[in-house]
Amino acid sequence: MPPLNRSKSFEEEYVNEYFLKQRVVGDPAPIGLFAFGTTQLIYSLYLIQIANVTNEQVGLGSALFYGGLIQVISGMFLLYSGKTLGATIFCSYGGFWISFGFVHLPSSGIIDSFKDDQLMFRNAIGIYLAVWAIFSFLMIIASLRTTVLEILCLTCVFIVFIFLVIASFTGLTVCYRIGGCFGVIGTICAWYIGMAHLLTKDVSYFILPLFPINHPPIADSESSRNV
Q1: What is the pLDDT of residues 58-75, one digit of tens each?
Q2: Where are the transmembrane segments (predicted)?
């Protein structure tokens, strides 16, 4: 046993260190994936107008709290786990859902401020969605060395944003429906990846493949700069 450090209490010297070593953090990815996929599915079905639902207010709770807050929290835990890409994706899309929900929240008054100019509102939403389409494209590039399912999921999200941008600027309602269909596909991918993270060898009788993409390693940036 190492000598006791008299400048620290016994609890600071040994007990806290023991619990820090024993602390185990679970995989936060499934939480973020299901939060992302579930909220996306709700709004995708609204876009397709399943059961003739055109009022999207019921989905605001999911957008603000499950797809928004919970996804951001899971992203922060991913950052704590050292997974920067996943943390960036979850925190960013969680922020998107919070902002989307806030814009459509009646008490925010944002939509009411455009009641005299609906064309300006559609253009403003189009710009807002176009920026998120660009972000989604950047995330696709960042994910090219991950798995086929992750790339497919992000690609579907990118396509959804593209069709929503077109619909916002042109008013073509068919683009909303097409975007909703790709949103459903993206949800299936997100749920599949989430289940693949949950169905591990210690808790499941089978596992789901994620089809990782194997590439030759890239030279270290420091060494490449020295060439």
Answers
A1: 999 999 999 999 999 999
A2: 31-51, 63-80, 87-105, 125-144, 151-170, 176-199
